[in-house]
Specification:
Radius of gyration: 20 Å
Helix content: over 70%
Largest sheet: none
Strand content: under 5%
Shape: globular
Order of helices and strands: HHHHHHHHHHHHHH
Length: 406
């Protein structure tokens, strides 16, 4: 079955989703949007809260990287949790952990407590992300897979777009940590909604289930090549969540203004997501993945030229285009190459490659900013994007190696 030439199928509805995907609206897409609202509200204020607690610019960047650390710590266990207990139980557990993490961030008296809360929310994100991806991989036909995954990320990004604006309004009422208030409400509501998700039937391996290390070893070549591209894409995408607020701080902008700039970029991100998924279903994954990273490379290259709110907003728009084109790429590729009988375990390992980049990118930004000018980190990120485009262009498969049931 060709990854690049699957028939499109389905008809778009006024909401933008195909009729075949509409049953997922209330149990998958709406909760994803609400969850995204929380992440979007919190993203701009993580670095700013750390700064408010006395952290340097470098340490603030490291605090943002703690989200990626939580994802890393949670990816492989999330695969086993979903495989053993199912998507619904995983969502309930992940939502509970996420709510506790946000409470820590909201009440944190010191930077270490703030970081602990951020790590816990990252763990929750890992469980949420794998449960949603695994469900769509099982429930949606291959011919509509990319648009289903892109639709999921589009709804997340729609929430991410609204989140900074809601966060900015809350910040004006309760202070910098208002973004965490929005996130707490969003995590609880989204968890309640998605807890209604039925567990899909899945095929299981004959004999004893392989351990996660066995799954990783079995697919080490794939994870080391295509997975390296996923890692670089993760670094490129996550770093913008550290770079944009820190550059806004460098320009002397307040937290509310930084949130609005972040939201402008997120709006463009949303607009690009679902169309990119339809293109992937019709013409293949490579035609979207490579341009996505090249556009992001341009945005990082021109960021040092931003000297005010308007120019920073323009750069945020370019970043939004690049990130929006890439929404759903990694989830779709993972579903394409995942073996059906150990899908959850493999997807845990696959997500680990991408999330390792999401951790490494902001970590790199924080370390460089602590040792020297932030502009050095920004320039290096442009190179990371270009390298990621080359790797994905080389290793994205033409054919899916696992049979898809009729």
């Amino acid at each position: 079955m060709s990854v690049g030439g699957a028939p499109p199928g389905g008809r778009a509805t006024p909401t933008g989703l195909d009729h075949s995907l509409r049953p997922l609206l209330w149990t998958v897409y709406l909760p994803a949007a609400i969850y995204g609202v929380g992440q979007g509200a919190a993203a701009p204020v993580i670095a700013l809260t750390a700064r408010d607690l006395g952290a340097s610019v470098g340490v603030a960047g490291l605090a943002v990287a703690a989200v990626g650390l939580g994802l890393l710590l949670g990816d492989l266990p999330a695969g086993r949790i979903v495989s053993r207990f199912g998507e619904r139980a995983a969502i309930v557990g992940g939502s509970t952990a996420g709510a506790l993490g946000v409470l820590l961030c909201l009440l944190a008296p010191t930077v270490p407590v703030l970081v602990a809360g951020i790590v816990l929310t990252g763990l929750a994100n890992a469980v949420w992300g794998l449960a949603r991806q695994g469900y769509l991989a099982e429930a949606v036909p291959f011919a509509r897979r990319a648009r289903a995954m892109a639709g999921l990320t589009a709804m997340m990004r729609l929430g991410f777009f609204a989140g900074p604006f809601l966060g900015a309004a809350t910040i004006l009422l309760v202070g910098v940590r208002g973004g965490f208030v929005v996130q707490l409400v969003a995590v609880v509501v989204a968890g309640v909604l998605m807890a209604r998700l039925p567990d899909p039937p899945r095929r299981t391996a004959a004999g004893p289930a392989p351990t996660i290390p066995q799954v990783v070893h079995r697919h080490r070549r794939l994870l080391g090549t295509l997975g390296a591209g996923a890692l670089l894409m993760g670094a490129a995408r996550a770093s913008r969540e550290a770079v944009l607020p820190l550059w806004a701080d460098h320009l002397g902008l307040d937290a509310a203004t930084a949130s609005v700039v972040f939201g402008i970029g997120a709006a463009v991100d949303v607009a690009c997501s679902y169309p990119a998924g339809r293109v992937m279903d019709r013409f293949g994954r490579r035609i979207v993945a490579v341009p996505s990273l090249l556009v992001m490379a341009v945005s990082y290259t021109v960021l040092p030229l931003a000297a005010g709110v308007t120019s920073l907003a323009v750069v945020a728009v370019v970043m939004g285009i690049g990130n929006g084109l890439g929404n759903g790429v990694i989830m779709t590729l993972g579903a394409d190459v995942a073996p059906a009988d150990t899908r959850a375990e493999f997807l845990g390992a696959w997500r680990l490659t991408h999330d390792a980049g999401m951790f490494a990118g902001p970590l790199f930004v924080g370390m460089v900013a602590a040792a020297g000018p932030l502009v050095v980190a920004v320039g290096a990120l442009g190179g990371v994007c270009a390298l990621g485009a080359a790797v994905l262009g080389r290793f994205i498969p033409v054919y899916a190696p696992w049979p898809t049931p009729t």
